[in-house]
Amino acid sequence: MKRVVVSIFMFSLLFINAIWALNFRDPHLLFIRDFEILFFLLSSVFLVVSAMLQEKKWIRVFCLVFTAILLVIVSKNEYYFYKYKNEILLNESNQFSLINKRFIVGFNDKNQIKRLAVNGIAGIFLTKRNIQGETHNSLKSFIEELQEIRKENDLPPLIITTDQEGGAVSRLSPLVRQQESLAIASSKGESSYEYGKMQGKWLNELGITVNFSPVLDLKPNRPPSKFDFHSLIATRAISSNPIEVVNVALPYVKGLEESGVKATLKHFPGLARVQSDTHHFSARLNADIPTLLETDLVPFREILKSTSSWLMLSHVILENVDPENPITTSSLVVESIIRSKLGINNVLITDDLTMGAIYNRGFCKSVAQSYSTTINYLLIAYDDEKYFTAIKCIRSLNE
Question: What class of enzyme is it (predicted)?
Fold first, then answer.
């Protein structure tokens, strides 16, 4: 019985290793990225030792051969990853510069992001990991250094973005003063214009040029799904009434603009009707366009009329327009609905392309589809290493 249990455990681990090898550097495993190779090697060694202790020869041979194959797969993929990563960083003959103009990326490595600034990426995304160990002055100095690099290389200023909504989503706090969420502040009678103007002042002082705020999703009239770990729209949304959302968000946007920071309206076309958390799962929206025009789209359309705000597209599948592709990858939605029917000519940016709703359907396919639309900027924020994979995917299609 003991041998049977050991064999079952060993084959289960072998299966896990197979899935792991085929999904190496997956964004869902980012928390172990720095030690992923070490952990995989230790798991493989454990399998080899377990196999050698098996009495049946076929089990030993099968496990040893299978483990060897998995190690070859991981080694080969790692070799090619670092190979094209170095090629992209070197950017000889500016071969990646045209593609880079469409990307805004997060980062961990300051030297690497300096290199990408030279290579012509459109912008960077700053979040919690970028303020660790930093002071207000040191972060400001680093941003100024990046802008000087751009100037020296005759490139336009780098777009510096962040996610400072207030409340739970305050990526630069405490370097930027923490505020209550816009919804809570406005409910207490605080001027949303002054709220935005003050927030914009603090961001502008650091060198931030674009803020991924405000949230224009209507507040859902239902409890959040138990699998909604990150979207949490119910806690971030201003109101379920679209006119009230406009009355609060429009002055906020104008306040940001007054302080020299662009706002970004999100998450088009609104996540109020969506059950799934697009950070992890595919999500579908089955409301038709006329219905959305009378409800969820009202805040977006009204605020876009009188501001130069950016518009962030969600990864929701708009079933009545394109039942196969998320909005961020759908030329049908972007060109036929957003650009033509709605007449929106503002800057469009995707939500993070390393989110599960996109990554799980095939990262290369999704990035290539998104790049083929008139979406201005593709955002890779959470798992910044996927920027290199994205560039390789697009370049491969153009060769």
Answer: hydrolase
**Alpha-carbon span 53 to 200, nearest angstrom:** 64
> What pLDDT is attached to residue 53?
79
> DSSP of 120-149, one letter per residue?
T-SEEEE-GGGTTT--HHHHHHHHHHHHHH
Structure tokens at 203: 């961001």
CA distance 222 to 9: 42
Residues 6+ apart with CB under 8 A from 212: 161, 162, 163, 164, 165, 264, 266, 312
Q: 318 pairs with which residues across the strands? A: 285
**pLDDT, tens digit, 9 for 90 and up, residues 28-37:** 999 999 999 9
Identify the residue whose tokens are 């739970």.
Answer: 168
203 Rama sector, left if φ>0, alpha if ψ -120 to 50, beta otherwise: alpha
Q: Can you give the pTM of this predicted structure?
A: 0.93
pLDDT < 50 stretches in the chain = none
CA distances from 305 to 9, 15, 191, 342 (A): 61, 54, 21, 11
Q: Could you give the dihedral angle defined by the CA atoms of residues 311, 237, 251 and 212, in that order, rounded to the nearest 10 degrees? A: -40
